[in-house]
Amino acid sequence: MENRSQHLLLSIRKPRGISLALFTGLLALTPMTQAQEGGSAPVQVIEPDIEPRSISEADIDSEFFEVGAFAGMLTIDNFSSEPLVGVSAAFHATEDFFLQFNYGMSEAGLTSFEELSGANVRLLTDDDRDYSYYDFLVGYNIFPGEIFFSDSLTFNSAFYLVGGVGNTEFGGESNFTTTIGTGFRIVLLDWLTVHVDFRDHMFNSDLIRESQLTHNIELSSGITLFF
To answer: Which positions make up the signal peptide (predicted)?
Structure first.
């Protein structure tokens, strides 16, 4: 008798549980149905007010040749530092490598021995003090980059290494010369560049003592034109 009563109670509670579950589900679906019928609320997108910056950048022109002139100071080994002038020409074989020809002129002053000995002692004549050189160099751009002078003005630039051989006429001698150095170039316009160069011209000389390796340091600056 007790088992029959429990079975009857369970059979009565089961439909009620199902009805309660269905009623709860309908309550949950009602807001979703209303949202779908009424449509979703518009989403406001805030766009940042950013104005693009216009930059004027100078590039090297499509031509591969450049010519120019330079001036600076030349420290002649065992002599004084004197003004230097010269001309240069280059061919840009690739974006990184270039070939360069340079010709420079200067005039040596007195040695320390001549200055201490007075006006009666001269190791070289005036003509022999003329210093001139030419060289053929290979250059490589190691650090190409940009220089920003303002928000709208920037210039391409590059550090480069050079090395090569040539000849030096000095003191009545003609000496085979090895040249190494570095430089910095700024492209002002697509056809105009400004550069600063540091060079060491090395050759053996017999002017002061027998077979002495001399280091002749050049620091110069110049402009070149592309065509």
So the answer is: 1-35
Number of helices followed by number of strands (H, E) in the chain: 2, 9
Tokens (6 digits) for 33: 């149905």
DSSP H stretches of helix in 97-173: 112-117
Tokens of 96: 């990184």
pTM: 0.70
Neighbours of 90 (CB within 10 A): 21
Length of the chain: 227
CA dihedral 154, 90, 85, 198 (to 10 degrees): 60
Domains delineated in the chain: 56-226 (2.40.160.20)
The kind and range of the H/E element at 30 are helix 2-38
